[in-house]
Backbone:
């Protein structure tokens, strides 16, 4: 059985990670129809982006014979951070407190589009995602991207999904839900009182009726969570 690292140690490692790892990449060539313009927020890419620049596809998972595109389904706005690095530290601390620490056993290297730039993922660690369970068990997990400074606040976006682990199937980790993971992560952060749920915004990233592509149970909206001081 994998040795579990205490949450205090996880927090220490996360807060010591170099902020340089989160610098924005140069503006990418992303089609206009892959970017949403929610009111009061910067331009937000509709999808998590894979290492090769394509839409992330859940490691090739197919649902009802269709490719599974991974939508952005969480937006976090920090109006109280002193800097981008401070916003990152505050977000990681909030996720840990909510029961979503960085955990090993997940694919990495993804990016998210905010305000004209691509941002690398949080958490920083090798093969890590924010997750509410170890990877050997069914879990909700996700990656967060940013922050992007906008109107005096720092904006992150995230892509969260639930995977069902079954050792009698291949692959062992199978897609289960986007909505369940999104809503559980939002509720967990809101319950701790640091970030508060502030509604949802439509991003237009639910795919229905396409013979080749699906977004599973995603409803096309991102939950918005906000925090101040």
Residues:
């Amino acid at each position: 059985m994998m040795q579990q690292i205490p949450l205090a140690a996880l927090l220490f490692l996360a807060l010591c990670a170099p902020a340089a790892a989160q610098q924005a990449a140069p503006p990418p060539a992303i089609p206009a129809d892959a970017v949403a313009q929610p009111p009061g927020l910067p331009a937000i890419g509709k999808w998590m982006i894979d290492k090769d620049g394509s839409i992330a596809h859940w490691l090739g998972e197919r649902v009802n014979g269709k490719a599974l595109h991974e939508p952005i389904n969480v937006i976090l706005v920090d109006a109280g951070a002193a800097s981008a690095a401070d916003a990152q530290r505050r977000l990681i601390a909030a996720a840990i407190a909510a029961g979503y620490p960085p955990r090993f056993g997940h694919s990495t290297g993804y990016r998210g589009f905010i305000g004209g730039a691509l941002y690398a993922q949080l958490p920083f660690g090798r093969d890590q995602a924010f997750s509410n369970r170890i990877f050997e068990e069914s879990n909700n997990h996700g990656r967060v991207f940013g922050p992007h400074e906008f109107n005096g606040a720092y904006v992150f976006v995230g892509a969260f999904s639930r995977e069902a682990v079954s050792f009698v199937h291949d692959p062992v980790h199978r897609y289960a839900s986007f909505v369940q993971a999104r809503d559980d992560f939002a509720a967990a952060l809101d319950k701790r009182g640091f970030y508060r749920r502030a509604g949802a915004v439509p991003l237009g990233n639910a795919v229905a009726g396409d013979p080749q592509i699906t977004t599973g149970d995603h409803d096309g909206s991102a939950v918005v969570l906000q925090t101040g001081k």
